Amino acid sequence: MDFLSLLFNEYRVLVVSLLSIMTLIVIIMVWWEQVSFWWLNTWYAFPLIGKENRLAKDYETQVKNYDKEWLNSEVALCADFAAHYEKVNKDEELFSKSQDYLGKVTENGRNNLHILGWILIAALVFVEAMGFSYVLSGFTIPGASEKLQQQGAIGIAFIISVLLVGLTHFTGHELHANSLIKKAKVWWKNAKNRDKATPELAPNTRINLDKTFEDDDEPQYKQLISRISTNAEVKPRYLITTITAIAILVIAVLATYVRGQVLEKMHIDEVNIKQNGVIYQEQDPYAEAPPAMLVQEAKNADDKAGDDVWEREQKGGWGTFIFLAFLFILLQIFGILIGFKTGFAGKHSKDARKEIGNFKSEREFKTHYSRLKQQVARVAQKRLTNLQQRMNQKAEVNCQDPKVLEMLEGCGHRSFLTYMDDLGNAENKYTQSVRLREHQEVQETTRPTVIAASKVADVETPEEMEARLQAEILAEVHAKKAAQIETPEQAEQRIRQELLAEIAQQKKVAETEEQMRERLRKELLGELS
Asked: Measuring CA to CA, how many Å separate 19 from each of 23, 164, 409?
């Protein structure tokens, strides 16, 4: 504490400057989206050196943007503001997807550790580490001055605090992820006990925040395991937990041992000083020497009293050191519990929680982001209009190309929202092409089964094929006629008679399975209608 007060008194301006810079950095990190958008708008509005003034000079370069003619400067401006517009272009569907994702991974209600929580844990660990880092600095920097040892103690305490806070927090995350894996395996084993045909526990790697509704029909254990990272065996992992436990025990034991050695060293130094004082003590040369027996008895009494005092100091010191070690371990367990209760194990749970934020309903979510979208679009359109006006002014003086002038005169049809609509249409086309490709991949995987079935059908004779198709179509007809007034026995007898009579009248021809199936279906459906 003396070192900190000395540092603050002698370098007050430096300390205040550093704290101010750190505070500013934290504010910028927390409100980065608002700060970056404000800076973009300010940078465009700067006179002379602003980006809007620079882009206004390029009024002749035309580009094709999503099958439409644009000017290169207009596209550059819209692209800059489009990044911010996309961040607030959110609707209630995203809110529903985020809630669904967190619900399926059983992490609804969880949050990341707040910045104040990080500061509290770091402060607690730092104070605890300072208790033995000062002792360690005496051996780490032997022969150093008191001031240098204090500085070394602060450095050692900082290093230990960073390592322990990180390890304990990650250990809590690992234990939380393991609890989810165990939960999914228990659900899967219960399902397997009820139905032996339950498939093996394997994640669906295609699931993300955008595709969270695709596995609604899957069992709950499959939904959970598809949203967390697991190994090939789907078993809990304890690597970080093991490292943290070893680090905590080693630090606690070594710190206690070093404290004990320092205590014994202090006792030895006191004994040496006392003995040296007795040896060099000035004696009166005219005084009569006391009897040797009395001197020995006094010495024995002093030694016994000193031993008793040392024994009590030693027991009290070691008791205190053991208590501090226990307190240190308890503090690390507290950090692990905080890591277990905060944070997320789901692959996209953090993003889902960020999207939900503090909104309580889809309506509140949509209202908030609709206002932000309008704000960004209004600012972007204002900048685009100013840019188009500047380019028109420059072109009227310097340009004689009729195509360029015509392009500039039609700038009213090119707005920021038009650019965003074109961008959205392009993204929709890309999404559709991706889904089509995924569908084709699924068909490719199922094609061998279809080919095998067709090969079996080729071996059948026409009579066998027709009999099999009759049976299949009759089964379909029975299902459709089940809701009618006829009993199943009456409907089956009537359809059988009509079908056999119709087949007997027709001439047998060599038909494929598909042709025969289609013909019989049309005939039966016509009769039923």
From this structure: 6, 24, 54
